[in-house]
Design goal:
With 127 residues, the protein is an alpha/beta fold. The relative contact order is 0.15. The chain has a four-stranded parallel beta sheet, with no helix packed on it. Helix 1 runs parallel beside helix 2 (31-41) and helix 4 packs parallel to helix 5 (115-124). It contains five helices and four strands. It has helices at 3-15, 31-41, 59-71, 87-97, 115-124, and strands at residues 21-23, 49-51, 77-79, 105-107. It starts with a helix and ends with a helix.
Length: 127
């Protein structure tokens, strides 16, 4: 979707109380687009599954998502597979997971995560 269209969708999603699954996989969503999605996710109270697989999200986008995870209480599944997230982005997500109590499935497959990122995730699972 063009960025303007993404922003319009996110503004609606912020106030939408019936949407439970949002599949935005296989698009060209970048860090700027995911920032808008994350801003909406902070306030959304119905979305339980968000698929952002196969996009161009990097560490900056992961930081935006992390900020949303600190506030969102309904998201249970987050798919960030096949993006450009490295250890830095995973560290941010891991820090947010210490506060998030609703997420039960996190897919980070096919990113550029090393052992350092794996340690960050495992540390977050202790909370």
């Amino acid at each position: 979707y063009p960025l303007r269209r993404q922003r319009q969708m996110c503004i609606r999603d912020r106030y939408n109380t019936s949407l439970v699954v949002h599949n935005l996989g296989y698009n060209n969503i970048s860090d700027l687009g995911v920032k808008s999605i994350s801003d909406a996710l902070k306030y959304n109270t119905s979305l339980t599954i968000l698929n952002l697989t196969h996009n161009t999200i990097s560490d900056l986008g992961a930081v935006s998502i992390s900020d949303a995870l600190r506030y969102n209480t309904t998201l249970t599944v987050l798919n960030l597979g096949y993006n450009n997230i490295s250890d830095l982005g995973v560290k941010s997500i891991s820090d947010a997971l210490k506060y998030n109590t609703s997420l039960t499935i996190l897919n980070l497959t096919h990113n550029t995560i090393s052992d350092l990122g794996a340690v960050s995730i495992s540390d977050a699972l202790r909370y």
